[in-house]
Structures are given as structure tokens and as C-alpha cells.
Amino acid sequence: MDSASGPGGADPTAPEGPTSTTATTSEAAAVGGSTESTAPPSRYESQKRRDWNTFQQYLKNHKPPLTLGRCSGAHVIEFLKYLDQFGKTKVHVAGCPYFGQPNPPAPCACPLKQAWGSLDALIGRLRAAYEENGGRPESNPFGAKAVRIYLREVRESQAKARGVPYEKKKRKRPSSSSTTTTVADVGGSSAAEGGGGGGDGS
């Protein structure tokens, strides 16, 4: 299936200027509280919780029912294939005249599937959720080699079918001078660099 700021308001970590940042920090310290205690969950955290609940429900409905402890990489791949039925990305089959065309001129009967980017982001969230819910990193089924291989095969096949190459985006690292300026602009508070959760791709 294709994969973050807090819902319902502005990002609580966004700087508003030296005065408001300092006042907020001082008020929190005066009452012995934390500005993060009442902050709404980020979009990433909300999505991660929904994804985890969906996977838990999938395990319950599995025949035979599965427990998390018995879940393997093969079951994770089975789950990803199950999600394809809810996909919205047209993936042309080899015999389709539009195979490999990024912008087909007319509709076709090829299936809709989950886009690789969405599946990749989903696995990242579920991998984190598994460990946050008591799972051991070494037994995390979402980090299994078989799952990584499956995702790579989906990426390559969809790139050929859709004529859309997938390239890794290089993150631009801010220079030390720009980072210093950002901190200084908010009264020396490191909160300016605090960000929300990552978004889902794809």
C-alpha cells in the first residue's frame, strides 16, 4: 500500500520568538510541570498507534489466530499483501500497453495496490511500535531480512510498471553556523531544534 505535526493545533515545539519561548519555559518551571505533558500526539505518533492497532486486529482475525510472539517476517509480508486490496496506486501488469508509462493516456484494468513508499513508511512505524510495546529488537518481525527483500522487490517492480524510478533523497545537513543562529533566535533554547515525528512516505 504508498509512507508531522500535532493534530488540532500548532506544533508545540515551533519557536514563536524569544519572549514567548522564555515566558512559556518560566511558567512551566514555576509550577513544576512540563510543556510536553499536555502537548497532543504528533501526526506520526497518531498514525503509528493506528497502524499498530490495525496489525493487532489482523492477528486476531488471522486463521488460525496468531499471537505477536509467534509472528514472523513471513506473516508481516502476508499482512502487506493483504493491505494491497485497499491500495490506490495503479500498478500496470507486464501485458498492459501502458506498462512503464508514468502518465498513461487512458484508463486500464490493471490492479490498484499499495505504493512502495507507503509500505516502507508503514513498516518503519510498526517496527518502532513493536519495540515500544515490549518487543525485543533482535526478534522484531518488521525488521526481518525477508521483509526488507520483499520491500525492495516491490520498489523495483513498481518502478518498472509505473515508469517512476525511486531514488533515495539525500538529506541536507545544516551547517554549524546556521544551527547556532537558529538557537540564538529563540533565546538560546534548544527547543527550536525539537521536531515532531516523521511522516509516512510515499
TrEMBL record:
DNA-binding listed as a keyword: yes
CC annotations in GO? nucleus
Spell out the InterPro entries in the cross-references: ALOG (IPR040222), ALOG_dom (IPR006936)
Q: Which GO terms describe its biological process?
A: mRNA transcription; response to light stimulus
Q: Which UniProt keywords apply?
A: Developmental protein, DNA-binding, Nucleus, Transcription, Transcription regulation
Q: Which GO terms describe its molecular function?
A: DNA binding
Q: What is its main location?
A: nucleus
Biased composition of type Gly residues is found at 193-202
All copies of the ALOG domain together span 43-170
Q: Where is this region: Disordered?
A: 1-48, 157-202
Query: Where in or outside the cell is it found?
Result: Nucleus
- Pfam family of this protein, just one? ALOG_dom
Where does the record place Low complexity bias? 12-35, 175-192
Protein family: Belongs to the plant homeotic and developmental regulators ALOG protein family.
Q: What is this protein called?
A: Protein LIGHT-DEPENDENT SHORT HYPOCOTYLS 6
Taxonomic source organism: Sesamum radiatum
What is the organism lineage in this UniProt record?
Eukaryota, Viridiplantae, Streptophyta, Embryophyta, Tracheophyta
